[in-house]
Amino acid sequence: MNRRNFLKYVSIAGASLGLSGCAVKQFSFGPRQRKPNIIVIFADDLGYGDIGPYGHPTIATPNLDRMAEQGQKWTSFYAAAPVCSPSRSALMTGRYPIRLGTDESVFFEWSADGLPTEEVTIAQALKNAGYATGCVGKWHLGHLSRFLPTNRGFDEYYGIPYSNDMRVDPNMKVAKDVNFRESATLEKMRNPENRKGGWVPLMEGEEVVEYPCDQTTLTGRYTQRCVDFIKKNSDNPFFLYMAHSFPHVPLFASEEFSGKSRRGLYGDVVEELDASVGRILDTLHEQELENDTLVVFTSDNGPWLSKFEQGGSAGLLRGGKGQTYEGGMREPGIFYWPGRIAAGSVVMDIGTTMDLYKTFCSLACAKTPDGVQLDSFDLSPALFGSGSSPRKTFFYYRYREIYAVRHGEWKLHFITQGAYRQGEPKTVHNPPLLYHLGHDPSEKYNVAKDNPEVVEEIKQIAKEHSESFVPGESRYKKRFDWKDS
Amino acid sequence: MNRRNFLKYVSIAGASLGLSGCAVKQFSFGPRQRKPNIIVIFADDLGYGDIGPYGHPTIATPNLDRMAEQGQKWTSFYAAAPVCSPSRSALMTGRYPIRLGTDESVFFEWSADGLPTEEVTIAQALKNAGYATGCVGKWHLGHLSRFLPTNRGFDEYYGIPYSNDMRVDPNMKVAKDVNFRESATLEKMRNPENRKGGWVPLMEGEEVVEYPCDQTTLTGRYTQRCVDFIKKNSDNPFFLYMAHSFPHVPLFASEEFSGKSRRGLYGDVVEELDASVGRILDTLHEQELENDTLVVFTSDNGPWLSKFEQGGSAGLLRGGKGQTYEGGMREPGIFYWPGRIAAGSVVMDIGTTMDLYKTFCSLACAKTPDGVQLDSFDLSPALFGSGSSPRKTFFYYRYREIYAVRHGEWKLHFITQGAYRQGEPKTVHNPPLLYHLGHDPSEKYNVAKDNPEVVEEIKQIAKEHSESFVPGESRYKKRFDWKDS
């Protein structure tokens, strides 16, 4: 038995035989026998129920269907927050946003702060382990140079710095050939008419390269960038973070997809994302990289329900964006790695975007940062079929408080609130509400009275968690003084 | 080119070349080159969202997942009524229940009537075309001998004659070895304690063979009967109607499945149904019949929501059993026929259980009854990928009225009502409510004001339909006088 076959066998059996777990895991089944590539495809405001594998009846997603059929579908996979910046900060660091000070709001075009620069992003961790790193799409963790992807562990960046309904910051660096000052006057931006989409800048590295960004071609351009990145790095391990700008409103589809879906514009946009997923998977296949690459598909938070037909659907889950009901934070979670992940497998255990940090570090033999309290679990046992997810508990934070806690199948709500940007009436529940998410995934039946010992146990878990650390200072206080809304 | 290959080519191309459409279709791709077998697996009160392919997060249905992945998932497939007997009468006849007089209620143990005997059931039509016909499971179209399956086109019958929450009719024929009179006294049956499940009779042919029926082993026994039927008929075309008694309440799972699901007892029961589906598909594979057999999986109506955790979920659809919102009548609809139906295909067109009548007759070269107005469309173009579903319009009947009409993606509600057996407040809408089911599958946004011409068009369609026939006389008036509830 030569060394290559020996290692392959070890890897299949999952036994370490004296090798470190990490050393074993770096050997995948593809022809290159190297550290695996990692791709995260991250949608924006996509609901749990918005794609075929999660039951949407009128949005056609043949590529995501294929990804789930040939990969693994998680049915309890969570974003770490029900809104954008906190959710993304947790994905990047493997930590609850409350530790980072990014939990309270989202960054705006007038924000003068970002994800704390002392945090070690997953891109930095993987870069330190020899990975080429690329970020394509929406960032939303600070748009000043020191907060941008190229200063946070990514070799390259192409995308919009925050949400696609935001405007430009007149202080931003601008490429020489962009006629920026003319269209970005404060006067123009203060006109509400000019906020109806299309006033977000497109960046390359740390410079604005297009303003206003043409959003109709954005998904296609992101996809091309990603295809190029994969091809360019086909001979060395890479980490690609592909953060789509959609289906966050305002919605734009390309000419090819406009008017094609039964679901209207929202469906057109999601079907274009699906086609993009197909191009990524096809590129991996063409480059003979599919057996060397883990692809993860998920989203940053639930659907923006108050946008009516332009908002998505959380399927059978209650609530949406901004809420700590399941619909606000539970997301599609599809893991794809032919040869390593069992085709058509379904995982009902708990996983979160924070867990990607340790999972990726484990697969990549990357060092996790010293002296940092991670809120991350290595999901490998569940992904590769050797066991269950190590995560048993999840805290649903909103603003700076624990609104709810999931522990096993139980979920205890201390606070709930209404739909995002619809007044959001906040209700404190004393006694708290208890739901069994296994029996009652739609959070309809409060069973607190019948299970007082469960209520007490979860209250204690929340108390111990809160007392175990000091929240980070809010990162939403530093602002440029031109803010006008 | 020999005759066999010639016909295969014709069948693939879908061209008739002078042969009748029927003659072409009888040739399937399996080794036997004969008329295809047909199996309908019919669940009871299963919701649109209750299985993996339609997005349930805590019920594991690996066999239905496989059936959808290797077959075809319909996302707008309807039962013809939101409650049991009307729905089943439509499946059996390809006609709206209002034509049959079966629309107003459901049959009870004191009912002295049934599906009109002059109606030609799909079993009769297929039997006339040379099919062996078997019925296993819940019937619910009349429990007196002349209404039972063996007098309505089926060679054999094994199952319960109506819902599993009903009691015995003391007038029924009983097998010699069954101690029936002792346990079936009116006094015992009048005791509400004795209604808590388990007081339904099990029949073989036209005789009660077990009373009270042990429901814990019912799914397994049905499955074994079906496996035996398939094996017995492996050399001639057969039609098997497998109508499960669950997940209608009261719920019973076998020892093997009890307590196994994350969804509680409801999940246990559905997971046992899923395992049953697996056994059927495995049997077809073992018997080398899978390329010769069309298998259809669907349900009779939506989830019984007022049963709380013991009722199912319609997923993202509004409403449930007894209602004419989508959740009451739209069902999982999975079609499986390896070699004929494209694996992993998804159909978003409209189909109904009534359409199975013409579809099956077409596949089987069976004659449809003369002089009978069928409400059935041959779904073959959509099933086999040559075109779209011919059905464009669907009437949602409740009691003896049209409550709603779907026409294309539009749905107009004239009347809506509350959850089944929860008071069911009825609301007449004048002007009617208009929803776009493509854009708004959850029926949230009434867009009647913006689309007055659509409202008028659908009103006219409903009027013409209603004026085109005389409703059948109600079949729920003849009763035994021992009725006591």
Automatic annotation (TrEMBL), chains A, B:
Residues 36-364 form the Sulfatase N-terminal domain. SUPFAM superfamilies: Alkaline phosphatase-like (SSF53649). Keywords: Calcium, Glycoprotein, Hydrolase, Metal-binding, Signal. Its EC number is 3.1.6.1. PROSITE patterns: PROKAR_LIPOPROTEIN (PS51257), SULFATASE_1 (PS00523), SULFATASE_2 (PS00149). One of its GO terms (molecular function) is arylsulfatase activity. It is an enzyme of class 3 (hydrolase). Its cofactor is Ca(2+). Belongs to the sulfatase family. NCBIfam families: TAT_signal_seq. This is Arylsulfatase. The gene is atsA_1.
